[in-house]
Amino acid sequence: MIYQRMIDNALWGFVQPRGGWSAFAERVRMAEAADAAVSGSPTDAAIHGRTRFEADRESSDTPDSLSAVVNDPRGDMFVSGEADQSSLVPGFGRRSFVDDICFGGETFDFCLETLDQLLSRFEECRISVSFTTSMFVQPTVDFLSHAVSREGLRADAKKLKAIAELSFPKTKKGVQAFLGALNYYSRFIQDFAVYGAALDQVREEDFGPGGDLSTAQRSFKALQTKVADAPILKHFDEAKEVHVMLFANEWALSTTLMQEHDGVMHPVRFCGRVLKDNEVNYHPAEKEVLALLLLLNTCYTQLAGLRGHAVSVAPGGPPRH
Fold this sequence. Notes:
By secondary structure, the chain is an alpha+beta fold. The chain has helices at 2-12, 21-40, 44-48, 52-61, 65-71, 108-124, 157-164, 172-183, 192-200, 214-228, 284-298, 300-303, and strands spanning 78-79, 82-83, 140-143, 146-149, 153-155, 242-248, 252-261, 264-274, 308-313, 319-320. The model is unreliable at 76-85 (pLDDT under 50).
């Protein structure tokens, strides 16, 4: 993930080479020019000929100017293990996904301003952008198999439809494949871990004569229904109050991050997990704390420093604030 870190550092302006990006870029340009001059001039080896082995050996023994600049201590971003203080300001309010960047705005001018900041930062950091694979000024963007729009985040409708139309698997391996297909979109499925745990407990012998698959089949149908009715997840708004709904039963945790839009609570993120063996006998209140910690860990970058309201939903009981 070195490439990911390089782009993140460029976007946030956290670190820079000694002397600044401009000085480092100038050294790189000079090194590239020197290498180009050397490669364009004839040598004795080129005139008299040489074997491929001799050429490879000479190349490895004689580092080029660009490699010398990159490996020079002045090109290091760190001094004594600490990052240099950067004069750059953050050019983007979030991380990239490896080399994929998606952003939007309330107005067209805001989008242009953000794009200008990004391109300027990439130019400073010598990061190239492929304009043939880029999209600009679109109402909806397909990003990592998600449809991103002004309204929020929506799962790929075609993939969800295919999952919702699957028949119940005939083997345990088929059940695991079904859960694996849903796992990527688990953020759209409330109580995914609760229903998924019942399917995960299915054994191979349950598919044979005398096996009981009634519970697994009910969970399978419930998940397919939730997939078909998967909601649009609203974009997180740090200016709005945070509301958290917690749920825990004998075998799983489930939590929902919500925010109010136009007087109605809308989900921002669903998350959950199966309880570990040592957590099964925890008190219900302790399980709810685990559910809250799970959400805080999953959504730390959004929730850090904010206050919120938590609602606990006990199985068969009324909500508790």
